[in-house]
Design a protein that fits this description.
2% of the residues lie in helices and 41% in strands. The chain has 386 residues and is mostly beta strands. Strands 18, 19, 20, 21 and 22 form a five-stranded antiparallel sheet that branches. The chain starts with 5 loop residues before the first strand and ends in an 8-residue tail after the last strand. 36% of the residues are buried.
C-alpha cells in the first residue's frame, strides 16, 4: 500500500517568467536566484516550514527569512519570521505541532526563538552566552540538543571567556602550537570546538539556563568542521541519549577521515564509541522511530575522502552491525527513517540525477522518483512507503 511522502525537493531555484526563457542565464541570475532550503514538516503533515534566502546584489549581502505553507489545494506561502537586517533560519516544529523553533540574530547574537502558530507571536526562547549554531528537539519535546563553538574547558553552553589558547603573534597575528589552524575559509580559535549540550525546555516555552555537555572527555568538533551540519547529531528514539559524529582533534586530524558515531546518555554523559571497528568515516547517525535500529553512512577506507558511503545498520539490542548497501554501487547522500521503521528513505546520485530510493532492512533498493533530483526527503508520521 502506498502512502504519501512529503518530498522536500530543495533545488534552490526561483520562479522564472516565460520571458526569462528568451535569453540564456547570466551570472547575475545565478547570484540573485532565490534559494529554498531547510524544509521541515509539521507532525501531522499538514504544514511545511522552510527558509528562503534572497540576495541584494547592489548591497552585496543576502538575507534569510522563514515561510510556512499549508499543504492542500492552492497552497500560499506565508512569511512568519522576518526582521530588517536580521536572519532567521533552521526552522523545526515542536513535536506537539503547536510552535516552530528557529535561530535568529534579532537579539544581537544567534539564539533560539519560538513562533506560536495559534497566536502568530514570536518570543526569544534562549539567552545563552554563546551563539547557537544549531539545535535538535528531542522526540518527547522536553529537551533540546544545542551546539556551537564553545571553549573546551567550559562546562556550560558559553562562558565569560572563550578558550583561546594561542599566543599573541606580531601585529594582529596569532601563534599556533597545534593543528588545525584553519578549515577552508575559517580560522580556528585553538581551545574552542563545536560542542553539543542538552538543555531542558520549560513549560513557558523557553529553554532553561542549565546545560549539560555531551562530549565528556572527547576533544574534537561535533558537528565536524568545515562542512558538518545538523545531520551529524540526533536523538535516541526514547529521548534518553544524544548521538553525534566526532573526529579526534589531535596531530592526525589534518589527514584523518575517521569520524566515529558516539552515544552519550543524559543520565551519564560519557560518550560510547559505536563505530570503533571502522577506521574510515562514520557519520549522520539516525535512530529508527521504534528504537530498535541505528543507521548511519560509512566509508570503509581510512584517509580516503572520496570513498563510497554505504548505510551501516546496527541492531540496538544485539549490537550487530550490517553494511546494508555494501553491494549497491551508489553513494548515499542522505538518509531518513520511514515512520514505520521498516525502511530508510535515501538519496543517491544516479548519472545526472539524484533520485529518492527506499532501502528496506534487508538491503533491497527501490527507486521512488523518476526524473530530477531530490536534495532531502521528510517522511510524515502518517506517511512513508510500505
Amino acid at each position: 500500500m502506498r502512502k504519501t511522502i512529503l518530498l522536500a525537493a530543495i533545488i534552490g531555484t526561483s520562479a522564472l517568467s516565460s520571458a526569462a526563457f528568451a535569453r540564456p542565464m547570466t551570472e547575475t541570475d545565478l547570484a540573485t536566484m532565490k534559494r529554498l532550503s531547510g524544509a521541515t514538516a509539521s507532525p501531522d503533515g499538514t504544514m511545511i516550514a522552510y527558509q528562503l534566502r534572497e540576495t541584494d546584489l547592489a548591497a552585496n549581502k543576502g538575507k534569510t527569512d522563514l515561510y510556512m505553507l499549508k499543504i492542500g489545494a492552492n497552497p500560499q506561502p506565508m512569511m512568519f519570521a522576518s526582521k530588517p537586517d536580521k536572519n532567521e533560519h533552521d526552522p523545526a516544529f515542536a513535536p506537539d505541532g503547536k510552535s516552530i523553533f528557529y535561530i535568529s540574530n534579532e537579539s544581537g547574537s544567534d539564539q533560539i526563538w519560538r513562533y506560536d502558530i495559534a497566536t502568530a507571536t514570536t518570543t526569544q526562547a534562549s539567552n545563552f552566552k554563546a551563539d547557537v549554531s544549531g539545535f535538535k528537539i528531542s522526540p518527547d519535546g522536553q529537551k533540546f540538543a544545542v551546539w556551537g563553538d564553545i571553549a573546551r574547558d567550559c562546562m556550560e553552553f558559553g562562558c565569560a571567556k572563550d578558550g583561546d589558547t594561542s599566543k599573541p603573534g606580531p601585529g594582529t597575528g596569532r601563534e599556533y602550537d597545534q593543528l588545525m589552524t584553519r578549515h577552508w575559509d575559517q580560522w580556528e580559535t585553538p581551545g574552542n570546538y563545536n560542542r553539543v549540550f542538552t538543555v531542558v525546555l520549560r513549560a513557558d516555552g523557553k529553554l532553561g539556563t542549565l546545560s549539560t555537555a555531551m562530549d565528556g572527555d572527547l576533544v574534537g568538533d561535533a558537528p565536524s568542521k568545515p562542512f558538518g551540519g545538523g545531520d551529524e547529531i540526533s536523538w535516541s528514539a526514547d529521548s534518553s541519549a544524544v548521538l553525534f559524529a566526532l573526529r579526534h582533534a589531535n596531530a592526525n586530524e589534518a589527514k584523518s577521515t575517521n569520524l566515529d558515531i558516539y552515544r552519550s546518555s543524559l543520565q551519564n554523559p560519557t560518550p560510547v564509541n559505536l563505530s570503533a571497528d571502522n577506521a574510515g568515516m562514520d557519520t549522520t547517525p539516525s535512530a529508527s522511530p521504534d528504537g530498535k535500529w541505528l543507521a548511519w553512512t560509512s566509508m570503509a577506507r581510512a584517509t580516503y575522502e572520496a570513498d563510497r558511503p554505504v548505510i551501516k545498520l546496527m541492531d540496538l539490542k544485539s549490537g550487530k552491525i550490517t553494511a546494508l548497501t555494501d553491494t549497491w554501487d551508489r553513494s548515499i547522500a542522505s538518509l531518513a527513517w520511514a515512520a514505520n521503521s521498516k525502511s530508510l528513505l535515501v538519496t543517491a546520485q544516479d548519472v545526472l540525477e539524484t533520485p529518492l530510493y527506499r532501502v528496506d532492512l534487508k538491503g533491497k533498493v527501490t527507486r521512488l522518483t523518476e526524473r530530477g533530483s531530490i536534495a532531502e526527503a521528510v517522511p510524515l508520521k502518517n506517511g512513508g512507503v510500505d
